[in-house]
Amino acid sequence: MTRPQFLAAAAILALATVATAQEPITMETCAVCHDDVAPAFASGAHGRAMARVDTAILDRSCVGCHGPATEHVDDPNTENINRFPDAGACLSCHPGREAMTDITASAHVRSGVACLDCHGTGHAELGTDHLLASAPHKLCAECHLSESGSFEMPYAHRDGTRPFECTNCHSLHGDNRQGRLAMIGSGGACLDCHTEKTGPFVYPHPPQNVNGCINCHAPHGSTNPKLLTRHRITALCLECHANVPSFHDISRPRYQQCQNCHVAVHGSNRDPLFFKE
Predict the structure, then answer these.
(1) Distance between CA 147 and CA 138 in Å, rounded?
(2) Helix (H, G, I), strand (E, B) or coil at 14
(3) What is the pLDDT of residues 66-90, one digit of tens each?
(4) In the list 21, 102, 113, 213, which could disulfide-bond 190, CB 3.0-4.6 Å?
(5) What predicted TM-score, i.e. pTM, was given to this entire model?
(6) 94 CB neighbour count, 10 Å cutoff
């Protein structure tokens, strides 16, 4: 979020706080009971960001997330305070790419995942970027066990010896197009790195325009070289190309490696049958 965006959001938050509370409830008020939380919040990432803009915003930060607290001050119990703010409270200050129009399309939200399932509240310093509850790859692996295990396969998507971070390919807060990947249909997430496969080609390989690269490649890991979904190239090609010419006797070894002749499998500028790049 840019500084002007933060200032605007913070101003709206401060005004809303004053309008909804019968008397201004400040952090000092909350600290009478929550003396373990208030100081930690003030020194944490949220508190420091607010203090840099205006200390008055920091003073009202408790009710900014937890809602009007006058009733709670008069009768302290968990029923008259919003203990776990929903996405609306977070998005009042964090619009940007996490705007509601995007986040509601997210597979995370559709599955009932809330902001606080992945992010800390800011009450304490966690030592991670974006107040994440743990390191990104560990956090994702808590739910996505199968995908995490794929990185242990013989051929895995790696950056040198380390697996890629999930955020290299996934738009975690949603995407207007798919809600899961930054760009999946056109293979865009893949082509950010694999630029040599980008094209555009005069004769493109149609699967790239349907489900993209994942028609043939496993995105996280595979038991096959080049992350292919099939061990034998012929078996992979025959999933789409079942009606091969009669002279292609696939029982003979020479016809069991399609790419020996069809070398430009990602697309060609010179040959519709992909004999030449």
Answers:
(1) 12
(2) helix
(3) 878 888 888 888 778 877 666 667 7
(4) 213
(5) 0.69
(6) 20
pLDDT at residue 209 in the model: 65
Tell me which residue of 234, 228, 230 sits closest to 213, measured CA to CA. 228
The pLDDT tens digits for 161-194 are 666 778 778 877 765 555 455 554 455 678 778 8
Query: Which has the minimum average pLDDT: 6-10, 121-125, 167-171, 212-216?
Result: 6-10
Q: Which helix (H) or strand (E) holds 170?
A: none
Q: How many residues does the chain have?
A: 277
Give φ, ψ of 139 to 5 degrees.
-65, -45
E strand residue ranges, 107-169:
155-156, 158-159, 162-163
Burial (0-12, 13-18, 19+ Cβ within 10 Å), 187: buried
DSSP summary character for residue 164? P
Beta-strand pair 203-204/221-222: unpaired
Burial of 46 (0-12, 13-18, 19+ CB in 10 A): buried
8 sits in which H/E element: helix 3-20
Q: At which residue do the structure tokens 């940007």 appear? A: 96
User: Between the CA of residue 174 and those of 9, 53, 101, what are the distances in Å?
Assistant: 21, 29, 9
